[in-house]
Amino acid sequence: MNKLLIGILPIFVSSSSYAQCIAPVEYVKFTGVAAQPESNGSVTLGTYSRISPDGKFVLRSIAGSHTSKVTLNEIFTNTNGKKLARSYNTRMDNEAFPVQGTWRYVVDPGGDHYQPKEILNKQKDARKSFNGGINGFYTAAAELPSLDPNSIKILSLSGPTTSNNEATELTTAVVYLKKNSSGQYEFDKESKRTSICGNLKNEKMFTMPMISVDGTEFSAVPTSPANGKPSSRIYKLEGANCILDDDLGFITAKTIFGFARDGKKAPVIFMGNSVMDSEEVGKKINVSGVHYYDRDLKKSFYIGDRSTDLQVDAFPGATKDGRIIVGAKWKEIQKDVPVEQSGYVIMDPFQSESMRKLPDHMRPKKCITRSEVAAAEKEQAGIYGLTFSENQSNPVSGSAATNR
Amino acid sequence: MKNIVILILCISSHCLAQLPESFLCRKEAINFINGKSTVKNLNWVKQRNDHNSFQVFRAQIHFNEWIELKTDLKFAPAISFFNEKKYTDYKLNSNCELLTSTSGVLDIFQNELVDTSKDFTSKDLQKLVGSGKSGIIYLYSPKMTYSMTEFSRIKKGLMKSGYALTALMDPYVDPQVTATFAKSLDLQFKGRRMASLDLYMMNGLDHYPTLFFYSNNKLYPHKLSGIHDEKNIKNLLAQWKAELK
Fold first, then answer.
1. Which residue of B has its CA nearest to A248?
2. ipTM value of the model?
3. Which of B46, B226, B236 sits opposite A221 (nearest CB)?
């Protein structure tokens, strides 16, 4: 009997310690207009998809012919407990982007800032909160860390503009908001546009810049690096100076920041093409896969699911709790026939096949827990000014919703 | 006289990654590669790290002929040879002996995706690079807006500088979808689909737009991805052109 108990105990302890882990991979299908195929039979994933810190919203461009150019997609749980993704129309133009870190606003390339709640309620009739920030190629923004609850600073970062034939460096500007007597943030002032990275001299020209979620760092590829090897690099922003912090050693697609965990450096994620063995013997496939780069370990990890022929889009995003969400197409077996599905895939990088190969002492953590996800959702609900129904998934703040 | 075309060359400071000093079965893997490849001293390009001690390197042997080497400290290497028609994988066992070899076809060269009789293959690339002219190969995709909205501006600037321009489409997107998107932007351009093994192995499909540069019968070993202003591109191409002389 003792032998039996000894045999069972480790299994019990092991499964108990994982009980609160989220699923390693979760598939969320489009529903409503988002799921309507185009004339060629394919469902549009959209592009430049940006993921909110709680993983509830995705801002995407080129959203297909059934919706506005840019939609705010919501990942919600239906009455049957199933997660789905639906689209809300917006009046924004392609390449719209969020103010990262908080997602207090999403921004039209022309500078109009909208609260997500306003879009959920009024879709194309949403009123902008204010206009500000800079524009140009690859514009991105983030809310800077602040200890003052009465003010907010939004840093925007942008690349060269077409209107200027001179070689231009990366530029930044700061928008200042302050709380009014009603407790709402309103536009206060805006700094001048500043060229940055002058300290890098001949290496100050970049492509594919992306700002970190707290606005203190950016990733980009220098076009004329001194060592002659262009690669994706990460720089700290110290005023107008750019301090090299990491070099991935190769060129990735756009490198997107996640949130830093407990004193660790913020990880970055990117889409890369990998040639890998297919399940079918004698066949290789090119998988567009999400890769996760841990800046403390200085290692990158393929994050995906090789069992469903997963094809992801080029803009994955990370939530505050560490999940990775990406627009994707995958195959689902229905009556023994693989059927293509479209939507989002939610992945726990710490439970990925490649991360699990690490020795225990190197693994950043075992998994993301449900309570970590709930905490991120609760914090974001406060920022959005939304309340959620019982299952913590459906906004009930007068949502004009959906599926239109 | 037929031009001699060099695809990838090792340019002074741009000399590409060397293989790691230690990985399991290093000597056997290199001997095996040298026995199969007609080119010695391959210029290896390091790809991403997948995890821990695992690394991937690629090298071009000739046009339309590539090799990929996967190394690890704990596991025996995998070696793959590629051309448009097929690839062959060789795996070694833990005693560094050849274990298996399997063959297949890369996904983009399967008939349903690209048509090598119509699309832009490595044969076309060889011809283009061998023309002796200086020019740009511009890869675009509706998946990345700027690659299409900025095409006309970039084309105008490059042609003004005397460079030829060849536009190629993302092979993973239905050409009809690309055409519809181009129409919605009021763009009047159409390219062939990218079906070159060489540009594929040089990671030309990772981001759009991606530019490759050729001059003096040589293809520059690095790509340029993303949007740049005209002066920046012009300066960079002048520098690359000088290096290819």
1. B48
2. 0.76
3. B226
Query: A296, A235 in Cβ contact below 8 A?
Result: no
- Going along chain B from its start, the domains and CATH numbers come out as 12-105 (no CATH), 120-243 (3.40.30.10)
Burial class (CB in 10 A: 0-12, 13-18, 19+), A81: exposed
pLDDT band for A167, please (50, 70, 90 cuts): very low
- Spatial distance between the Cα atoms of A96 and A109, rounded to a whole number of angstroms: 5
DSSP β-ladder status, B135-140 and B164-169: parallel
Among the partner-chain residues B48, B146, B230, the one whose CB lies closest to the CB of A137 is: B146
B153 lies within 8 A of chain A by CB: yes
Q: What is the mean pLDDT of residues B125-144?
A: 93
Average pLDDT score over residue span A49-60 = 97
| Structure tokens, B61 | 């042997």
- Position A394 pLDDT exceeds 80: no
Enumerate residues 6+ apart whose C-beta is below 8 A from A130: A112, A113, A177, A186, A187
**What's the pLDDT band for A278 if we cut at 50, 70, 90?**
low
Three-state SS at A270: strand
Say if residues A305 and A312 touch (Cβ distance below 8 Å): no
Quick: pLDDT tens for B187-236.
Answer: 776 789 999 999 999 989 888 999 999 999 999 988 888 887 777 788 88
Q: How many CB atoms lie under 10 A from the CB of residue B13? A: 10
Asked if A300 and B203 come within 8 Å (Cβ–Cβ), the reply is no
pLDDT digits (tens, 9 = 90+) for A259-273: 999 889 999 999 875
**Do residues A246 and A231 lie in contact, with contact meaning Cβ atoms separated by under 8 Å?**
no
Q: Which two tokens stand for residue A139?
A: 């514009």
DSSP string, A107-148: E-TTSEEE-HHHHHHHGGGPPPSEE-S--STT-EEEEPP-S-
Q: Within an 8 Å CB–CB cutoff, is residue A253 touching chain B? A: yes
Closest CA to A156 of A218, A208, A199: A218
Helix (H) or strand (E) holding A253: none
Domains of chain A by residue range: 132-257
> How many pairs of residues across A and B have Cβ atoms under 8 Å apart?
147
Phi-psi region of A150 (alpha: psi -120 to 50; beta: other; left: phi over 0): alpha
Measured distance CA(A316)–CA(A318) in Å, rounded: 7
Chain A residues 119-138 with a CB less than 8 Å from chain B: 137-138
What does the pLDDT average to over B67-91?
Answer: 88
